[in-house]
Amino acid sequence: MATLKLTDGLVENEAVSAKDVYLWDTALPRFGVRITPAGSRIYLVQYRAKAPSGQPSKTRRIRIGEHDGDLWTTTKARAAARKLLAPVDLGRDPFAEDERDRRATLAADEAAAREAQARERDRFEAVVDRYIDACMKANRSGDETARLLRYDPVPAWKGRPISELRRTDVAELLDDIKKRSPAVARATFAALRGLFGWCIERDIIESSPCDRLRAPARPEARDRVLGDDELRLIWKASEGLGAPFATVVKLLMLTGQRRQEVAGMTWAEIDLDAATWRIPKERTKNAKAHELDLCPQALELIKAIRRDGPHLFPARTAPKRDGIAPISMAKAKPDGAVRGFSAVKRRLDQLVEVQRREAKIDGEMTPWRLHDLRRTAATGMAGMSFPPHVVERVLNHISGSQGGLVGVYQRHDYRAERKTAILAWAKHVDDLVKGVEPASNVRQLRP
Description:
Blueprint: E1 2-4, H1 8-13, E2 21-25, E3 31-35, E4 41-49, E5 58-66, H2 74-89, H3 94-121, H4 124-136, H5 142-151, H6 153-157, H7 167-180, H8 182-201, H9 228-238, H10 245-255, H11 259-263, E6 270-271, E7 276-279, E8 290-293, H12 296-303, H13 341-358, H14 372-383, H15 388-395, H16 404-409, H17 415-434
Parallel strand pairs: 1-2
Antiparallel strand pairs: 2-3, 3-4, 4-5, 6-7, 7-8
Helix pairs in contact: 4-5, 5-8, 7-8, 9-13, 10-12, 10-14, 14-15, 15-17
């Protein structure tokens, strides 16, 4: 360990050794340079810090910088050393102070990171994802709830902490949705109420912005029944949709079952030899397994479908809005069932109008929905004198007529009567399409 007046030439020309070499300055005690085996020349100060009474003092070293002849020279390093050593002469310990400052900065950074992480976890879209993962996976209506939350609320409130949402935010969102669809607005409100209730349970928010907010009015029950002429037009127009939707629409008309039940048909549910379709309870609205006799027309349609996976109608890619598929469409999965009926219905309406023009039918067709095919089938079977309890069994619909003692003790499934009813209805539809005059015991449906 040499002691001499440090100069740039001395520092630069000092030979490198197998171990660190220290040169200490005579012009400024406690200032020196360390020469490493790799050839680095590092200026530093070394001092003995004053320790509390009864404790040994500690030797401190503070690095100034590496000699490069420009940024750090001997003269510049010596000036920096004087500033570092000035507090030492006053009894302070710059090394310990820097260490405390570093730890304080680190703690502040960690606290800021935790706060940012907490803010990120409380962003509306992040909470929605956690809620769906926690509660919607095993829920029968979980997919639809997830779609409702992600379609309108997430784009509207993305990036906002959920705790900052207020009643007015929910009210304004629902007002916007109601302009498009009152039914979707009501369903979205129910989904949001469930989400906010879950958040309260987990202390994510203190109160729900849905509290004291009136739910959107329930849409009026529809009573649209399609007439025979309209059924004929829809059947013929559906052929313009191509696969798979042409078949889906025809099966809706022939079977009277729900749209999602038909669209989600799997080959495992179909027994072609027995001409039956068994819908498991997991896919029915009332969570009751349902078996339906398939008419010859439905069997013909099903046999014409090429098998490509477990579903008769596999999913297709859905168009998205800002990365989110419309509510009427599910995420396209390799093993999922086809969706996208909003666009299909718009196209079908156009095709129906083409049919009406070709048939020279005046006026406009009263607006209708695919679900009206189910109501029309029920009305048609009733018009053939099939009793309500048989028609309801065909449709797997449980109403007040099957409640009470009847619902508890009456377990007869009217299987023979159900088969007769659905086959009669299917023949009626087939006759309409082929232009055959209806039998005298069949009341013609009128719009």
